[in-house]
């Protein structure tokens, strides 16, 4: 019999999802410290984030399928064990190679927690509770994704070491395992006995190739790098791999193999559109990653405090996810997604065009947070399961949606970094126009400041500090305004893209409304 109330199992499902999502961003607060600890370059250090993203993307649909086959309780517990073990190994890493392997193990554990928790809720709780329950999971994902850097900074400040960012996961994992062994009921789908190992293998390899291809794009030489074998070559191989996977799934329809991604799902236009919306929602998450540097450079907040300016957005995203779940229960996922898109458009549009003061930032970041949480919570998950007409294979459906969102999260930072670099390249012309208006020339600027600015989007804190030491107030004001204009131009496309993504989501829902209702 399906449950109607929120119980201890749901609470620990939420904790598990929060823990895995948190570690997708918490490491960013300690990257410099970790790099110094292992004596590696910043470029090499970025693999601490990339490898976790890769592992999560590959593991999500696999864990969902295994949960359908062997039981969600069993696989959820195994996932938590892997995550806790990986966290311990990361903290105890004697060298960077060990660290990367440990992060991969950690990602293999974290990748399946959200999809298993979502499918367990759908199979265990009554339909009228799906919206609010899935909204709770969405809230955990939303809050964790934006609070990660803040919590990481706090833990480092309190403990004095980056190791506690990962050690703290171990007792939490043990607590989840104990309670789930005792309290969580076993649920699973009736699936065929043969696992789709070929499709899973091809998908995993193709996803890895796609992620490596995107990661190899160099924002400083974007046109040249895209045409290189390390980008376009890997991208073509990944596309070929996905094509092979679809062919394998098509042939599996006539066999007794339990398909990894059933071909009948791919035939449904509404389900394919939902996957497109998943990619776009991932780009919303990607834009939020840039908010600390945005407030540091546009609003001149110190680097030490910039992360804390994400707190209103984080709290609003939790409220938005919860609110979205309730609206799904009452009005359905289509109405909820339209409302979510309108709120997101207003919030991200405001961040793009109207931010020069702190009050405006907090106002629009709260609106953006509400829309963001609303979008990634229950509406899209419920729409995916309904558009797939899935009385079974819920884990497969939700897992595929999660992977599509992960693709958006992966693409967004590279795209946005290019935007930012382009914006900063106009700093000289912006300063010149402001100096001209104030009746000064570029040659009147201090030589040390000109030299610092020649590095494009270099250390903005250092540049602004040099500007503040200029004794001529009118010149100082003109240069500062030029820097602010260029910085706003650099970050504006990030939030414009997020607003456009929300517009496209809304249009897709409206255009394919009939297909979603079938």
TrEMBL record:
Spans traversing the lipid bilayer: 45-63, 75-92, 98-122, 134-156, 162-183, 195-214, 226-248, 269-295, 307-328, 335-356, 362-385, 406-424, 490-512
Keywords, sorted A to Z: Membrane, Transmembrane, Transmembrane helix, Transport
GO cellular component: plasma membrane
Subcellular location as annotated: Cell membrane
Listed Gene3D superfamilies: MFS general substrate transporter like domains (1.20.1250.20), Multidrug resistance protein D (1.20.1720.10)
Pfam families per UniProt: MFS_1
Record's signal peptide: none
All copies of domain Major facilitator superfamily (MFS) profile, residue ranges: 9-517
Topological category with respect to the lipid bilayer: Multi-pass membrane protein
Superkingdom of origin organism: Bacteria
Gene Ontology molecular function, alphabetical: transmembrane transporter activity
Protein name: MFS transporter
Organism: Staphylococcus edaphicus
